[in-house]
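The instructor's notes for this session suggest beginning with a concrete chain rather than abstract definitions. Hand out the sequence below and ask the class to guess, before any prediction is shown, which regions might be ordered.
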Amino acid sequence: MSAFGPTGRAGRPIVELGRGGPVVGVQGLGCTGMSLAPGHIDRSTVRATLERALDRGVTLFDTADVYGAGANEELLAPFVRAHRDEVVVATKFGIAPDPSDPARRIVRGDRACVRSRVEGSLRRLNTDRLDLFSLHGRDPSVPIEETVGAMAELVAEGKVAHLGLSEPTAPDVRAAAAVHPIAAVQCAWSLFDRAVEDDIVPAARETGAALVPSAPLGRGFLTRLLRAEEDELHPGDLRRILPRYVGEPTRSNQALLSPLRHVARRHAATLPQIALAWVHHRAPAHGLPVVPLPGTRRPQRVDENTAAARITLTPDDLCLLEPLASQTVAPHHPEPALPV
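After discussion, reveal the predicted structure:
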């Protein structure tokens, strides 16, 4: 029996995604980066990565209609169709171009947007239902109750199975859950980014939602793949506008990787594996389901990441890693409502 509880495909651990939500593998896959450079996608490698993930017990695949302007959903469609009853497809909606300035993005949560965006995602993913449909941010001009009410209509119609929220406030989580059960709340959560523990985690636990951490590897920082120089980042990379990931803050934060390296040596593991093992440990630490969404475009990285679920961190390990978030240079900030 897994330390996580029940097991599913190939004996891999599984968990219910929120109270009454879908049953998924304890680790998901963030698919954003697969369409980072839409003109240069190696579709065979992407498909191999998706297949490897499923083989390793990953069943939650996360995308959004804004990633690659819909290209990310289209990229996943053949895989989803081939494994429709084995995978849980999670997509997000709401981010749209500002009519007054197409270069700027806004969040829309009106009923018309909810309706049009679900149809677009269903079409691009080539499926008749979405397993998890999440609001990608919050429209300040529309009460959250109205947006979730419109989303709940889609559940009643069979187009959507479960609802979620991405980067909400704690009051939004509670208000949304009062309208319809929320299966998952998606927020940044990692060793270097723990602000969600103050209010979002308690709200999710209270309402029966799972936490689905995005950027559980610190957007590459906790893997050593992200160096200190901004010019090493892709021109469209979101990290260029996030102060933690460029320039002096990144160089200063490099020193904080030392405890992570120490714990990795103890377990004969890699830095990403320890960082993910720590996120997995948030589930028993906070008393709610936690399903991290590390992203990758490479099958070998899937092997590395999923192996993290088999690592049990000791009290000494956790004590060593505990202070890292409070020592990071550059304050926490909400993730901008922009595609990566």
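Then share the key points. The two ends are 37 Å apart (CA to CA). The chain has twelve helices and eleven strands.
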